[in-house]
Amino acid sequence: MQEIIVKIACPDEKGLVHKITGVFYHNQHNVISNQEFVEPDTNIFFMRSVIQGDVDTQRILNGLTGILPQQAQITLSVKQKKNIVILATKEHHCLSELLIRHHFGELNANICAVIGNHDHLAELVNRFGIPFYHISAEGISREEHEQLMHEKINNFQPEYIVLAKYMRILTPWLVEQYPDQIINIHHSFLPAFIGANPYKQAYERGVKIIGATAHFVNNHLDEGPIIRQEVMHVDHTQSWQEMAQAGRDVEKLVLAKALKLVFNDNIFVIGNKTVIFE
Amino acid sequence: MQEIIVKIACPDEKGLVHKITGVFYHNQHNVISNQEFVEPDTNIFFMRSVIQGDVDTQRILNGLTGILPQQAQITLSVKQKKNIVILATKEHHCLSELLIRHHFGELNANICAVIGNHDHLAELVNRFGIPFYHISAEGISREEHEQLMHEKINNFQPEYIVLAKYMRILTPWLVEQYPDQIINIHHSFLPAFIGANPYKQAYERGVKIIGATAHFVNNHLDEGPIIRQEVMHVDHTQSWQEMAQAGRDVEKLVLAKALKLVFNDNIFVIGNKTVIFE
Amino acid sequence: MQEIIVKIACPDEKGLVHKITGVFYHNQHNVISNQEFVEPDTNIFFMRSVIQGDVDTQRILNGLTGILPQQAQITLSVKQKKNIVILATKEHHCLSELLIRHHFGELNANICAVIGNHDHLAELVNRFGIPFYHISAEGISREEHEQLMHEKINNFQPEYIVLAKYMRILTPWLVEQYPDQIINIHHSFLPAFIGANPYKQAYERGVKIIGATAHFVNNHLDEGPIIRQEVMHVDHTQSWQEMAQAGRDVEKLVLAKALKLVFNDNIFVIGNKTVIFE
Amino acid sequence: MQEIIVKIACPDEKGLVHKITGVFYHNQHNVISNQEFVEPDTNIFFMRSVIQGDVDTQRILNGLTGILPQQAQITLSVKQKKNIVILATKEHHCLSELLIRHHFGELNANICAVIGNHDHLAELVNRFGIPFYHISAEGISREEHEQLMHEKINNFQPEYIVLAKYMRILTPWLVEQYPDQIINIHHSFLPAFIGANPYKQAYERGVKIIGATAHFVNNHLDEGPIIRQEVMHVDHTQSWQEMAQAGRDVEKLVLAKALKLVFNDNIFVIGNKTVIFE
Fold first, then answer.
1. In C, which residues are within 8 Å of B192 by CB distance?
2. Per residue in C78-111, pLDDT tens?
């Protein structure tokens, strides 16, 4: 049976759950799950429901609009695969993980294309029958490169763009084209070790734990809303290159788990934070 | 303001959340949080709500009874400290953890008494001004010992009994006096290594991870509903005595975290499992 | 420069490290690392050294034989890729992980062939240009099937055989052909949930943590020397199918990490245990 | 039998292990364990050995001096409890953990005294029969306060000073009195969230993992050599106060485990890093 995900964000007030579930109940829908949260700093109410049945989405939307505060943000989405474009550079491990999951129908997304600023990964991508586009940044300006990227991406009208170890910093202009739609994997436990070569930074600081962070991209370097983080122990015997190698396993799983949450509509973004209903 | 925890378990049917939150809404109560779950094997609906305000509990109970299926189990409890009795033997670490938390008001419980089948821990307990009772099992039958334990425990009418490394197996008779009220910490990752000296068993099996399990006690050895489990890595360099020593840190934290859930009314028991709303 | 791994196991006695390192020193070899351990139950001394230089292995072997007890087991191996054969059935995740690592030269092994008792994974394996052999067990006896498997495996003279979710139990006869050379990934935290469908067993027991175990295969079901274990938290909301799905990420990484240790000659097997120098 | 811990740090050269173990062997000492490491950036060789027997320490020292490079740092220490002084402020959890372990002989240290800049913890400390000194910073200058602290500490000639949630920043002068002898627990996963109220910083950044760091104190705020770090997962439902409460369990265990390494002579400090032989 069809499943619809309903996401609501609005100022909190008494009786919201009762009223919202009333709309579902009076339309004869099974509610598979409800989750709600009131963010204490802003007093915003968040709710995510999964409803089942022969859903008339316009009718549900009208019903909800009628009982919710005027500023309420309401989205209804059918549970289905998202269209995505992946950007990559030279490292394969995150891309490989996504290609394999996609190949076996485990990604909850259609990979429309992979775009690389280098061509190192073309061979891999082609093995899986996915189009690979090489858009080199050599010899052209940053703006020209991003214009080319933008055009290529837009051909596919993706719902999300995944930076799978894409080693260039996006310009503010490109980021603004895709608000809360770009997901990055950063190879450190943010906010520690922002910027280049975090494993080297970690090694030099002598930390005993390293990590990875999946986050939405905004226009502050490595500072968007965090989706998921994981860590692993290291010790003095490991060079930073060995840390980097070991860290790849963390990176690829953190990214895959974050994308599962994104593609399953489990996440609300509020300011620089995420509310995640797992 | 007063907070009331409402726990409901009943056969699932459409509209339950709408109807239940309706009772709260029409009585003008703020709902701090709701959590619900439908157990798929049994189709039982579980809900835990925290409501705030000048709550007339009888009125709420009547309201809920009116709209819920007849078999519904409904409990309303004011958020307050539980009365508990702790049983211990010779090892101090779990007891110490609970005494310290209790001393600083962090346990969400009143320790009415500690009862030991040995007197090793009397000195520690007395330092914290808690009554300690030594009920030796020497020279008397198992049944006589438990009869004495039972009498002493009953003096305090505790809501929960905590086995903080109490190294005797309770008889079925005693367990039946306190259904879902006895919590034990077992020093293995159950169901691995049931029974005596699990660290020795773990060492001999050559495992690379050891753990601890907090669970409700029923009449199958080390087999009650599991509340919480944690693990730690070990390697070939550790003797079983060293594993036991290292494992104590896991044991005491697992027990403390499990008790937090129990004393905060976060747990439903269904058959041999727990549903936990954290 | 060439690196040689020296592994020694012998009854412990005074001065072993001094004498062994003396052989290296007097032959002018750099010692990159030494690790040693005395197993207390058996009093066996284990040492693993990595030496560098223009190594005359026969000369080193003679030198060591001259100063070690007669029963000493000494192996010298040049750091190089191992030849392996992988057995699989229908599930792809462990195999995918190994194929990707192999494709990018990260496995420290040559995958000579993949053999499946079903043909589900042929398509995947072919994408990476690795030979896949389908040896069905349909309509033939267990012994006949293993005979065919054995013949095929032996064509490649592999140093190790990896069971990447191979869902058949090997006969004692086949296991004996490859002592300490077969590595299996079991989808539970052994010794919990031995045998079939451990995720279902875990679900029914209501555990809060599930795991995976990589181990050498011997002739006791799921009972060989454990190499590596990892776990993940689960809760009441997950069906056993969801646990199985989530558990795959643990399984594939545990297997990959165990194989890294195996292929890098980091492991000694002693009885039913492993001594691992990481 | 007496156990002696030998720690050596010197420029690396061929044959060091052979020569060092030769000194032990020719003096008829059992070697319980050896661990060594060459730091690649500085090419410094570190070795820690535990030797047993009727050890003539001067003879061993002379033997080692004779065969090691001139700049070698050699320390021999009998395995025995260290004398320590603990500084605290108002929070009890780290202090409680140390007092309990000390009370049961598990700390490998003698707590000579606890000094607080507030008197909140006097009652607790007195329960364990340990002297508590209240040295208020009220109404006096920072320098005067530290002078008083210094005098009090020096009465006890401690080998280590433990900052168990001591919430004042030590002056460079005081830090210099005790090089590599002061251990602090910082309530974040350093280098993230240096300085005041790291849990609030973590909450505001929306991280999904928080942690704690035990480190030696030097004259850069929260920047000394890291001994141990641990983390825990958090989510959007937790306020920073709840994060702080949950984080205390991590803090106290990280500190306890770090101190075990320190008091057991497992650590070398090199620049801003630690080499730890566990």
1. 189-192
2. 888 999 999 999 999 999 999 999 999 999 999 9
Residues from chain A that touch B30, judged by Cβ atoms under 8 A, are 14
As for the ipTM of the complex, it is 0.94
Chunked into runs of 10 residues, chain C (278 residues) has average pLDDT values of 92 95 93 92 95 89 96 92 98 98 97 98 98 97 95 97 96 94 93 87 92 91 89 95 95 98 96 93
Q: Compute the distance between CA of residue D154 and CA of residue D164 in angstroms, rounded to an integer.
A: 18
Share of chain B above pLDDT 70, in %: 99
Tell me the domain boundaries of chain A: 3-78, 81-178, 180-278
Question: Is B54 annotated in the active site?
Answer: no
Q: Residue B259 and residue D49: Cα distance in Å, rounded?
A: 43
Q: Which of A54, A222, A249, A265 is catalytic?
A: A222
**Residues of D with CB below 8 A from A239's CB?**
40
Which tokens belong to C137?
Answer: 């067990």
Q: pTM above 0.90?
A: yes
Region A137-152: mean pLDDT is 96
C51, closest residue in chain D (CA to CA): D14
Chosen from B50, B90, B127, B237 to mutate, greatest number of chain D CBs within 10 A: B127
Rounded distance between C-alpha atoms, residue D258 and residue C87, angstroms: 44
pLDDT of residue A196 exceeding 90, the answer is: no
Number of A/B CB contacts below 8 angstroms equals: 35
Catalytic-labelled residue, pool C54, C56, C180, C222: C222
Distance from CA of A247 to the nearest CA of D (A): 16
User: Could you say which architecture CATH assigns to the domain A81-178?
Assistant: 3-Layer(aba) Sandwich (3.40)
| Mean local confidence (pLDDT), D235-254 | 95
Residues in chain A: 278
Q: Does 3.40.50.170 match the CATH number of domain A180-278?
A: yes
Residue pair A190/A215 in contact by the 8 Å Cβ criterion: yes
Using DSSP's 3-state secondary structure scheme, residue D174 falls into: helix
φ/ψ of residue B265, rounded to 5: 55, 40
In terms of C-beta density within 10 A (0-12 exposed, 13-18 middle, 19 or more buried), how is residue B190 classed? buried
Model pLDDT for residues D126-143, shown as the tens digit of each residue: 999 999 999 999 999 999
> Fold identical between A81-178 and A180-278?
yes
Supply the pLDDT for residue C191. Answer: 86
Strands, E, within chain B: which ranges?
A: 3-11, 30-39, 44-52, 73-78, 82-88, 109-116, 132-134, 160-163, 182-186, 209-216, 226-233, 267-270, 273-276
Best mutation target, C16, C25, C47, to test chain D (most D CBs within 10 A) = C25
Q: Is D229 on the interface with A (CB under 8 A)?
A: yes
Sign of CA dihedral C259, C262, C267, C273: positive
Closest-CA residue in chain B for C230?
Answer: B209
Partner C contacted by A117 (CB < 8 A): no
A14 and chain B in contact, CB less than 8 A: yes
B163 has pLDDT over 70: yes
Q: Give A122-137 pLDDT, tens digit per residue.
A: 999 999 999 999 999 9
Closest CA to B21 of D241, C46, A36: A36
* CB atoms inside a 10 Å sphere around CB A146: 21
* Domain formed by C3-78, architecture: 2-Layer Sandwich (3.30)
pLDDT at D221: 65
Any residues with CB less than 8 A from the CB of A188 and at least 6 apart, and which? Answer: A194, A198, A199, A201, A202, A210, A211, A212, A213
pLDDT category at A105 given cuts 50, 70, 90 is: very high
- Among the options D180, D222, D249, D265, which is catalytic? D222
The SS3 of residue A215 is strand
> Residues for chain B: how many in total?
278
Does the pLDDT of residue A149 top 90, yes or no? yes
